[in-house]
Amino acid sequence: MRTSPLWQPSATAISNSNLSHFRDFVQQRHHIRLDDYPALYDWSVAHSELFWPALWDFAEVRAQRRWDQALCDSDKMPGARWFVGSQLNFADNLLRRRDDADALVFRNETGVSRRLNFAQLYRQVAQLAATLRQQGVVAGDRVAGFMPNLPETVVAMLACTSIGAVWSSCSPDFGIQGVLDRFGQIEPRILFCADAYLYAGKHINSLDRVGQIAAQLPSLQRIIVVPYLSPAPALRALPLAISWEQALDNEASEIVFAPLAFDHPLYIMYSSGTTGVPKCIVHSAGGTLLQHLKEHLLHGDLRNGDRIFYFTTCGWMMWNWLVSALAVGATVMLYDGSPFHPDSNILWDYCQDEGFTTFGTSAKYIAALEKAGARPGSSHNLSQLQSILSTGSPLLPESYDFVYRDIKPDIRLSSISGGTDIISCFALGNPVLPVYRGELQCRGLGMAVAIFNDVGEPVSGEKGELVCCKPFPSMPIGFWNDADGSKYQAAYFNRFANIWCHGDYAELTGHGGLIIYGRSDAILNPGGVRIGTAEIYRQVERFAEVLESMAVGQDWQGDVRVILFVRMVAGHSLTPELEHRLRQQIREGASPRHVPAIIIEVADIPRTISGKIVELAVRNVIHGLPVKNQDALANPQALKLFENLPQLQQ
Question: Are 226 and 245 in contact (CB under 8 A)?
């Protein structure tokens, strides 16, 4: 095991970081001494009532009214209340810059490029907000987006939230039922859509599905259509529709930002929905803003003029997280299409041409990039790139090696982990700490993260449940249509009373970092020993012949046996010789208990729209159980590959 860091910041970088400036700010404000990040972290969780107000002032949150009390009912989770009496507006904070620098830059896989400066962004938001008000939209109304990752999507969200309406979006590659399972629950008044979207060289029409979706949303009063791949899409079949140009056809130049409570609803996000109808998770304006400011400013060291990219759709929380970078004056880089079309250079061309300072993506993309033989550090000028972010699944140690060998040796590689549930991170990057192979750098400030064993005792250096022991501002307000809070309670607080637990299997390291081993509900349990699936994937990733893999547990003869499915690189197959090498590597690299009982080659592996493999859905299939909501999957047809496999009956 490598114990020396892969990267560490220089003394100058540490002293110039926003995080160090914030530590100085806290020391002066509270007349205390905090020598390093661990000391700052310990103080931030021990004194939540002081930390979050200090962050508010350091980040210069724009508010129409300051709070009366920063934290009430601090012993309740859920139930704690933050910044009681304050009034602010989320959009006001994201639109604080009004100059001619780039606010949004857009590119798609065909090379089409557009940009909006901060002044243009403000003007378009003003015009669209005026139209929404004319349509009768008021605070608390729901506005939905069925949109590609376009500048217009950001404009629509900001116009909506400037009024105090609640924004909710899903990716346009969702099927009709998947959209209705989400938007049907929240009853939107306005729907934004584009005529089509791009993926892997294909133009996929959206308007036919929009017509069918609208017919089953009786709450809908207006559809606003963005012309993306057609200059003038036909709207005759959509009687509620107007064009984007019509929606901006007014002279409004100023925005009336609604002053709203800190806990006013901002976003409705959705659980993956692979085991039933998605849960509608309601996030607050103040909690989202403050948490994202912390993560961008302090943990990401983002600042005015930086250029941040994240490969995401509008249905993944990373889109919401990315757009919040406007609040620190950064330029937000948007992309629509496949990250590998026409080839693996597409995103790195964009990075080089536009001078990204932060490049965000998924762990799966980084692994696929290496499998594709890409060497961005050799093929592109990445001199302005300062950090790479990864999330969506655990970033394997071998992927750390690839990044430092073949992308950039002097980069801050930050694997981050949190989720839709908190619209932010529990563990993430840090500009003043080193990067260790296979580890997330640190727990986030103000997040009382611990690892509990099965009986609810905190442990260090052992695997267990990742929990949060104290309230934090970006906890959901609740779930939509959950009047008594029972669904919310069951989702996070039934395992350990008054302790947040959302199902990650993890370990605290001696460096103060974390290792994530996968979802707790996907943990394998052969012979009563808990095994994280990421431990198996780490070994399988070493094989160039294997494109991706999935491990699940099969109930078998009163125990659980490990089944490994592998999807092969084109031109390769699972031979007895390769199977032997896989088993040997897993045995030597992990343990004998990790070695699968059966290895099966499959043509595809099912995943969600955001690219996460769905181990639980496959486990259901091999046990003959239904997968209730297949519309949540990007490739639901892949589930059939796992039905009635003869190898699983032996």
Answer: no
For the chain, helix, strand, coil in percent to 5 are 35, 25, 40
Residue 140 gets the label, from left (phi > 0), alpha (psi -120 to 50) or beta, of left
**pTM for the structure as a whole:** 0.88
Distance, in Å, from the CA atom of 58 to the CA atom of 313, rounded to the nearest integer, reads 31
Three-state secondary structure call for residue 126: helix
- Please say whether the dihedral angle defined by the alpha carbons of residues 106, 112, 101 and 386, taken in this order, is positive or negative: positive
Burial of 13 (0-12, 13-18, 19+ CB in 10 A): middle
Judged by average pLDDT, the poorest of 155-159, 273-277, 421-425 is: 273-277
Residues 6+ apart with CB under 8 A from 346: 109, 337, 338, 339, 340
**Digit-coded pLDDT (tens) for 87-145:** 999 999 999 999 999 999 999 999 999 999 999 999 999 999 999 999 999 999 999 99
Sheet holding 387-391, edge to edge: 113-117, 102-108, 331-336, 307-310, 358-362, 387-391, 412-415
pLDDT at 482 over 70: yes
Give every CB contact of residue 116 below 8 A, 6+ residues apart in sequence. Answer: 102, 103, 104, 124, 151, 155
Strands annotated E in 392-462: 412-415, 417-419, 424-428, 442-443, 449-452, 458-459
Instruction: Report how far apart the first and last C-alpha atoms of the chain are (Å, whole number).
Output: 37
**Helices and strands (H and E) in the chain: how many:** 20, 33
Torsion of CA 609, 613, 617, 621, to 10 degrees: 120
- Tens of pLDDT along 595-612? 999 999 999 999 887 778
β partners of residue 144? 168, 191
Angstrom distance (rounded) from CA 51 to CA 34? 13
Predicted local distance difference test score (pLDDT) of residue 1: 45
Tokens read off for 534: 């990421």
CA 74 to chain centre: 27
Predicted pLDDT at 274: 58
Bridge partners of residue 565, in order along the sequence:
550, 600
Q: Tokens 């107000």 sit at which residue?
A: 53
Longest dimension (CA), the chain: 72
465-475 per-position pLDDT tens digit: 999 999 999 99
